Amino acid sequence: MSSHTPRKRVRPYYRADGTYVRGHYRARPGTGTPSSASRTSGSSSTGFGEFIAGFVLLMIALAVLAQIAG
Question: Which stretches are transmembrane (predicted)?
Fold first, then answer.
């Protein structure tokens, strides 16, 4: 009934320049055209924001531990 393009899952990863790329699906090699690929806007800033949030939480936890220790 409907035309189905085989898709391959791409796991999240960091590029060499530190940009975070969210997981997504793409056409399998040889089955799609470059124009069929889609991008998710804001994916690199989301990854960086999550990194900063984790770093801030780590710093808060270290400050609390430092106060408890002495």
Answer: 48-69
